[in-house]
Specification:
The complex is a heterodimer of chains A (111) and B (119). With 111 residues, chain A is an all-beta fold. In chain A, 0% of the residues lie in helices and 43% in strands. Chain A is globular and about 40 Å long. In chain B, strands 2, 4, 5, 6, 9, 10 and 11 form a seven-stranded mixed β-sheet that branches. In chain B, strands 1-3-8-7 form a four-stranded antiparallel β-sheet, with no helix packed on it. The chains are: A mainly beta (111), B mainly beta (119).
């Protein structure tokens, strides 16, 4: 089972919007609405930001939004803030024996 | 407040065993599946395995990379999840995270414990 493909890095100035893509296949992202996104600031544990494609857990700012089209899921951060600087990982359920697969990770830099 | 605290990490030689513990608090432990993830130094996240709640049979699932070597168990009376790691390899070196949830939807993570497999 190959990892989901994410861009290595994205950047933006404070207040701008950035979008991170997460490309899989018809065996994972394309077939299931079970896509999550995690934020991991340096040296800390991951934090759930989005689940089931577009749902935000309590406490996650509405600046974070998720969507999906075909085999690609996306995370958009609107109104970028310095505290958003972190690594972001997508994750999807998969029909393979692996059950779940992570993305390669994207480093978000706030300029 | 939900808290997950891992312990048991450290330096171990290849081929040896190690058991990690995850002590949970702040929620009804027995109602939830519990998972383990890992992250090798400078690398991405990898799901290791999970154990279902007793209501769903308490059964386990594992990633192919650890199947047959790692075993997850739970003690609901103590709110502790375990990860027994046998026949450790250098490529098992990673920070291991205990989490609440299954494979994809994981809502709480512990702080992680470092396992280093080296001679």
């Amino acid at each position: 089972q190959s990892a989901l493909t994410q861009p290595p890095s994205v950047s933006g100035s404070p207040g701008q919007s950035v979008t991170i893509s997460c490309t899989g296949t018809s065996s994972d992202v394309g077939s299931y609405n079970r896509v999550s996104w995690y934020q991991q600031p340096p040296g800390t544990a991951p934090k759930l930001m989005i689940y089931e494609v577009s749902n935000r857990p309590s406490g996650v700012p509405d600046r974070f939004s998720g969507s999906k089209s075909g085999n690609t899921a996306s995370l958009t951060i609107s109104g970028l803030q310095a505290e958003d600087e972190a690594d972001y990982y997508c994750s999807s359920y998969t029909s393979s024996s692996t059950l779940g697969v992570f993305g390669t990770g994207t480093k978000v830099t706030v300029l | 407040e939900v808290q997950l605290v891992e312990s048991g990490g450290g330096l171990v030689q290849p081929g040896r065993s190690l058991r990690l513990s995850c002590t949970a608090s702040g929620f009804t432990f027995g109602d939830y599946a519990m998972s383990w993830f890992r992250q090798a130094p400078g690398k991405g996240l990898e799901w290791v395995g999970f154990i279902r709640s007793k209501a769903y049979g308490g059964t386990t699932e594992y990633a192919a990379s650890v199947k047959g070597r790692f075993t997850i168990s739970r003690d609901d009376s103590k709110s502790i999840a375990y990860l027994q790691m046998n026949s450790l390899k250098t490529e098992d070196t990673a920070v291991y995270y205990c989490t609440r949830g299954g494979v994809v939807l994981v809502d709480y993570w512990g702080q992680g414990t470092l396992v280093t497999v080296s001679s």
